[in-house]
Each structure stands twice: as structure tokens, then as C-alpha cells.
Amino acid sequence: MFRLLGISMTLMTWMACSSCGENPQPIDPNLQEITLEVPDHFPAIPTNSDNPLTQAKIDLGKKLFYDPMLSIDGSISCGSCHLAANGFADPSPVSEGVSGRTGSKNAMAIQNLAYAPFLFWDGRAENLEEQALLPIQDHLEMAMPLDTLVARLSAHPTYPEEFAYAFGGEITARKIGQAIASFEKTMLSYNSKFDRFRQSEDSTIFTELEWKGYKLFFDETPGLQHPECFHCHGGFNFDDARFLDNGIGFAADPGRYEVTQFIQDYGKFKVPTLRNIEHTAPYMHDGSFPTLESVLDHYQRKGLRLGQQDPLISAIYITEEDKAALIAFLKTLSDPDFLQNPDYLPD
Q1: pLDDT tens for residues 136-158?
Q2: Sequence-separated (6 or more) residues with CB below 8 Å from residue 236
Q3: How far is the CA of 98 from the CAs of 34, 63, 248, in angstroms?
Q4: Which terminus has fewer CB within 10 Å in the chain: N or C?
């Protein structure tokens, strides 16, 4: 069972009766709304009034996440493309779906998605409940029509009872999305070396090389040629709600344009988190860079000078020593507790 991280209200041991004198009925804690705890340097997790978080939904969502019966031929699950050893991302440039089908984008890492205002590289989903259902239906991924999936789960020996327990009533596509989203919301990464520094402000936590990389990442002192990576990868999660063009594959993939149909969004993609970046290779939306070194080589070349790339990218200058320091700092964003947490791994 998933570890309860917090309770949104004080749990009462007994609930009130409908009339005086009757024996009180115990409250099932698995059906109580809970709140996930985060450290002080993280903002409170946004809540969804349409899908209050409960332990029963989390447990059901985890089971669905790792169940290959959600794909049309029973060959892959959500977890097939989001592997713990790879930071809950995919080590392949693009993931393989049913029947060997492949798409054009790298599977994004799953972590701290409870905060995400948009999901997928092009931002086509606005919440996790919506996101969870799209790969299931995608012809290149799991290729499962939702009505077929509902019928399949409804005929399963245990799923009808589990859905009735978590949600009440019969299985629906909406409840499937809500359950998977509930599990994904619990996948929080906040215990890296960098997080320990943020909590203590003790720079001796870092090695000399890591500290140099930290300063290169954050320093914007006028007159110094620092890469200032934090302008795009900022905040507690080292990401950005914007969609930007970093000069990768402008002609090959329209990116955000596919969603908005605004020409100014052509070739722009969601800025991903850098947390656990050491483990989530290959990089970029198309998985075209196999290592962190190759990513920094791209930026050292000032991008591919295509599209409408951010002007900060065109100004980056870093030496080989700088690259080593930046990579050392980026590795301080790795969180072994998150990657090895049994609550996130298949049972």
C-alpha cells in the first residue's frame, strides 16, 4: 500500500450516526481525502476538486499504470515507457508502441507532474486526468479505444470491485484517467543534494566543481559570459511553463503549433524539468542527444540557428571546463530516494 503522506483534514475514528443511539460506523481511511507533503522550498500542490486524492485511487492507479491489458494487444503498459532506472523516462529516443509502432517524440520523465500546467512536449493536455487517457488511445502507443478498455476492465475478475471501492459505481473512462492521475501525482522528487542545500543554505554540501556549476547555472552578473541556464530551467522544479524553440528540428516537428495553430508557436516545445536529468537520457523532444555533453555541445554551438529560438540560447558561451562543472551540478539534482521508492515501482 502506498505510504500516506498527509491528511487534508483531521481523520476521525468514528463517523456520526444518522440517528442517536445507533452504533457508529468506522471511517475507511483509504477513502479519506489526503494531501501530499512537500518541503518548505516547494509550493503547495494544486488540488483538483473534481478528483480529490485518496489512497484507494492511488493504489488503483498504480495497478492500472503497470497493467499491459491497457494496450490493445496486451503487450505494453504505461510503465513500459517510464522506467525507474531511467528516471521514469524511456532510454530509447522514441518509445515503441504496440506492433512495433513508433512516434516522433521522446517519452517525458514522470516526476512532480502534480504541478504541471501542461502535459506532453506540445502541451496538448492541461491536466493529468486528461493526459493519462491520451497514450492509451494513441494509435502509435497503446492503440486502445476507451470503450473497449472499459468493457475489458469491466469483465476482469477484480477491477469492477476495485473501481467500486475507490469511486463508487461502474467503471468509466473518466475514472480510469482519474485513478492513473492520482498515482502519478504522488510521484514527487524533492530529496536531491540540491534540495538539501536549499534547506540548509550550506554550500559545503557541494564539491568545488559542483559549486562552480551552480554559479554558472544561476549567475547573471553583467559582463560575465555565464550560460544562465535558470532563465529557462528555473524555480523549484527546474522547468518553465513556457514553450520555447531551442533550435532543435524546426523543420521536422511543428511542436506547440499543432495545438494552437499559431505560426509563432511552430517548432516550440515544453521546457522540461532538469530533476534527475542524469538518468533520463536521451534528451530533447526527439531524443536526438544521447548525453548531457552532447546537449551542452549543441548550446555551445549556439543552437542550429533555426526558427525563433530564445535569444539567450544564441548568447551562450561555455568552455570545456564550464561544461564539466555544469554537468557536475546537474547531477546534484538526482534523487535516489525517488528513483528507488517502492511506492512508485511495480509490485
Answers
A1: 999 999 999 999 999 999 999 99
A2: 41, 42, 43
A3: 36, 20, 27
A4: C
